[in-house]
Amino acid sequence: MTGGRQRLWTLPHPATGRDSRKMRQIADVMTSEVQTVTTNEVVGPVRDVMLDGRIHAVPVLDLTGAVVGIITSSDLVEEHAPQLGVTSVMSDRVRTVGPDDSLVDAARTMLDARIHHLVVVGDRAEVTGIVSSFDLLRELAGEVEKHESATIPGRHHAQPGDTIVIRGHEV
C-alpha cells in the first residue's frame, strides 16, 4: 500500500487466495493445456491444428522433450509447403519462464524481446504451460476493473433510473 491505495498486481487472486502482498505469478494466468510439436514434424498438420484450435503459438521440442523453438501464427503468414519441416519456420529464439515468475517480469521480457508468447517450463525444463501477451492484458484489465469498482465509503453508487447531478447539472 502506498498513499492509501493498493497497487495493481498485488490483490489476492480469487481462485488461489494468495497473499495480497505477493506479486502475481505466471501460474495464475498461464494456459496449462499446451499443444506441442517435435522437430521431426512438418508444417501442414501443425498449421491445421493451429487454425482449427485457434492456437497462436506452439512450442517445438527436440526428441528429448527440450524446448528448442516456437511456431507462432506470424511464422505461418507466408504460405509454406505442407511437407516443409517445422524447423524451417520456427523461431529458435524462444523465451521461457517458470510458473512462479512474476507477471511483471514476464511482461518486461515480452516487451524487451518484442514477442507475444513465453513458454512456461517446470523444474526439469518440461513444458507446463504457455502465457501470451493477451493473458497478461486480460489479467491487467481484470485488476483495473476490480480496482475501479471497489466501493468507496460514503460514495453513492448510481442504480438504473437514478438521477445523477454533477456540479449542478442533471445528467
How many strands appear in the DSSP assignment? 8
- The rounded distance between the terminal residues' Cα atoms is 35 Å
Order of helices and strands: EHEEEHEEHEE
Q: Please tell me what the overall shape is.
A: elongated
Biggest sheet statistics = 3 strands, mixed
Average pLDDT value? 81
Brief summary of the model shown:
This protein is α/β, with parallel strands linked by helices and 171 residues long.
3D architecture notes:
23% of the residues lie in helices and 18% in strands. The chain is elongated. It starts with 36 loop residues before the first strand and ends with a strand. The longest helix has 17 residues, at 133-149. β5 and β6 form a beta hairpin. The protein is an alpha/beta fold and 171 residues long. Mean pLDDT is 81; it is low at 1-16. The strands form three sheets. It has a three-stranded mixed sheet, with no helix packed on it. A three-stranded mixed sheet has the order 4-5-6.
Short key terms for the protein model shown above:
3-stranded mixed β-sheet, disordered N terminus, single chain, 3 helices, alpha/beta, 23% helix, 171 residues
Task: Annotate the secondary structure layout.
Blueprint: E1 37-38, H1 43-53, E2 57-61, E3 67-72, E4 96-97, H2 103-113, E5 117-121, E6 127-132, H3 133-149, E7 165-166, E8 169-170
